[in-house]
Automatic annotation (TrEMBL):
GO terms for cellular component: cytoplasm; nucleus. Belongs to the PITHD1 family. Residues 21-191 form the PITH domain. Gene3D superfamilies: PITH domain. Pfam families: PITH (PF06201). PROSITE patterns: PITH. InterPro entries: Galactose-bd-like_sf, PITH1-like, PITH_dom, PITH_dom_sf. This is PITH domain containing protein. Residues 1-31 are annotated as: Disordered.
């Protein structure tokens, strides 16, 4: 059994892969699922489902849980990460058919965007979304998403249905710990002269050289 579905006997070669050039063989090794701050994901105008569609890699084709738009066909999803991310690809499974979003707009580090102000902001990047039952991969311009702490996704309209439906959202890329809060190392245990035992016979020797 293999997670990839098409890695027949390839496991032993995984260490040879430079998967920066090999996005066709998507795998869990680059998946940012564990680095999404899922408790703080916000989905606007939905059926009550939000972070549940950001699923682990092995559930990417699961259709038992889906997010659907509510009042109309627009959805905003704000996704914070637990560190600094260099995003490589957005993964989406949407639909079916006319419930597929027409496009998706990505905004880097726009953690508070909502419907009132999103129209004034130019997306960092946007993609047309194709209909299909598979997971689509949308490779972003990494230079535009190279040191981000959140990404906001905006689905402006469906492909004809009254609502937009999303089954799965995933992210591929590279995560690093955020450097914002450096740990201050305290050196109390080191050379604090006042705490050292005095060496007998030297007290005051320097201050009264003529005694």
């Amino acid at each position: 059994m293999s997670h990839h579905g098409h890695s027949c006997g390839d496991e032993s070669h995984d260490h040879d892969h430079d998967h920066d050039h090999d996005t066709s063989d998507l795998g869990p090794q680059d998946n940012l699922y564990v680095h999404v701050d899922r408790s703080n994901v916000v989905a606007l105008n939905t059926n009550g489902i939000g972070p549940e569609v950001i699923k682990p890699w092995h559930k990417r084709l699961d259709e038992s849980i889906s997010l659907e738009s509510d009042a109309d066909d627009q959805i905003i999803i704000r996704v914070p990460f637990t560190g600094s991310v260099r995003l490589r690809s957005l993964l989406l499974k949407t639909g079916p058919t006319d419930q597929t979003p027409a496009k998706v707009a990505l905004y880097a580090n726009a953690a508070s965007l909502d419907f009132s102000d999103i129209g004034d902001r130019k997306p960092t990047q946007e993609f047309d979304v194709a209909q299909g039952r598979e997971v689509g991969e949308y490779a972003v311009k990494t230079s535009q998403f190279s040191n981000i702490s959140s990404v906001t996704l905006f689905f402006p309209e469906s492909q004809g249905a009254e609502t937009t439906q999303i089954y799965y959202i995933g992210f591929l890329g590279h995560w690093t710990e955020r450097k914002d809060n450096p740990v201050i190392t305290v050196y109390e245990a080191q050379a604090n002269i006042a705490d050292h035992p005095k060496i007998p016979g030297t007290e005051g020797a320097l201050s009264n050289p003529h005694v």
